[in-house]
Automatic annotation (TrEMBL):
Superkingdom of the organism of origin: Bacteria
Protein name: DUF1330 domain-containing protein
Domain DUF1330: 16-108
UniProt-listed InterPro entries: Dimeric_a/b-barrel, DUF1330
Lineage, highest ranks first: Bacteria, Pseudomonadati, Pseudomonadota, Alphaproteobacteria, Acetobacterales
Species whose genome carries this gene: Gluconobacter morbifer G707
Length: 112
């Protein structure tokens, strides 16, 4: 599911980066609702594609997370530009107040 224009050629997508949000515990549903209502607008002006959003999961090892979100960006620089943007950081405060998360950027091959 594309959010905004995303490079289509393999050359443009060769250095994709994935922001992975792993939620471990929801602590404040009202704050989480504020986050989910505001986060979509933070992608404006950024090339991003949602690959997974709290879908069904099969835990293979370790502690099962409460939910996982994976967002694809053209590269690490683009992922950081979105994550560090004032728009996202303003909304991210709701996520931080709402739940316990781990967030990482992983470089890898583009999704097919």
């Amino acid at each position: 599911m594309a959010l905004y224009p995303f490079p289509s050629s393999e050359k443009e997508r060769a250095m994709s980066a994935y922001v992975v949000f792993t939620r471990h515990k929801l602590t404040d549903p009202a704050e989480f609702k504020a986050y989910t209502e505001g986060v979509g607008k933070t992608f404006e002006g950024h090339s991003a594609r949602l690959l997974a959003v709290y879908g069904n999961q099969v835990n293979l090892e370790g502690t099962e997370p409460d939910g996982v979100v994976i967002i694809e960006f053209p590269d690490v620089k683009a992922a950081r530009a979105w994550y560090d943007s004032p728009a996202y950081q303003a909304v991210a405060q709701h996520r931080r107040n709402a739940a316990v998360y781990d967030v990482v950027i992983v470089e890898g091959a583009p999704a097919s």
